[in-house]
Amino acid sequence: MAIDKRKTPEINAGSQADIAFLLLIFFLVATTMNTDTGIARVLPPMPPEDQEQEEVKIKDRNLFLVLISGSGKIMAGAISNQEQIDLSQLKDRAKEFIVNPLDADNLPEKVAKEIELPDGSKWTYPVSEGVISLQTTRDTDYQSYIMVQNELTRAFNEVRDEVAMRKFGVKYTDLSEEERNAVAKAVPLKISEAEPRNIQK
Amino acid sequence: MKKKGDKSLPGISTASLPDVIFMILFFFMVSTTMRDQELLVRYKLPEATEVQKLEKKSLVSYIHIGPPSLSMQAKFGTAPRIQLNDSYRSTRDILDFVAAERDKLSEADRASMTICLKADQATKMGIITDVKQELRRANALKISYAASKTLGYNRQ
What we know:
The complex is a heterodimer. Helix content of chain A is 32%, strand content 22%. Chain A is of the alpha/beta class. Chain A has a domain at 60-193: 2-Layer Sandwich (Nucleotidyltransferase, domain 5). In chain A, strand 4 (74-77) and strand 5 (83-85) form a beta hairpin. The termini of chain A are far apart. Chain B has a five-stranded mixed beta sheet, covered by helices on one side. Chain B has a two-stranded parallel ribbon with strand order 2-9. Chains A and B meet through helix 1, strand 1, strand 2 and helix 3 of A and helix 1, strand 1, strand 2, strand 3 and strand 7 of B.
């Protein structure tokens, strides 16, 4: 066969940009970028149906009730001492309840618990017995519910931050996972959600 | 100044344009994820400041709650609906849905399965609570209330 001495003509690469553009636009349309964010919660397990419901007795002083009405108004306080408060006050009220800084009689009692630290030592911390009970009506807006959940989470996060700062000298989010678990045991996220009240308007 | 009208400027080379576009393309291919399901409900997520990122996407299952999307409203009205996978479902189907989602995961991952509740901010708590009760019954206890991050509330 005769060898072609002529140079092969170069392939025109002018349309390569168009092809790349086409692919780019496909990926722009077909994909999403946003990572999902949300407030994490753990639901209580359902009691077995054949088991008799035991009324868990919680002392009045260990209970902080938060009720969100259908119109988004917030009632908060101890059992016999509830009042309507604004959302902006809720975080500080919840924090006061969790920490009980002055060991007051009408705020939750504390039980000293030993918590194991990652380095093997024990850490005794007075863990609050307080439970925040969150109640909604069936026609409460989801937005107001999330706002209240958010404020309560913020209260817990701030308390955890303070405890972590005192114990380890860094913020809660900057701790290692084991240390974070230890602080989470010292300040447990105790939010109990009762089933909504059926209030007729 | 001298006029240089008759001397034509050399054209700018566009030879590197494909490379630039390919670079943008690869950026998008790496940083985004495929849209996996078509939304049949519309929702505007509530806003919160204390949100956490959902860690492993493969362990997350979604439940969408909200009014039907515009094209579906003629048929289904505007009352909030629950979307599981690609269709409207009722709360009774959540048990099966959770069981099916759990089967997809490996044995080791099942304990850390998370349900992400994506609900419209105007949804009433009644329907949300019904869903939560079903999730408790299905023993899917790790949940996340999807919310978009905001710096603070703007209250009137």
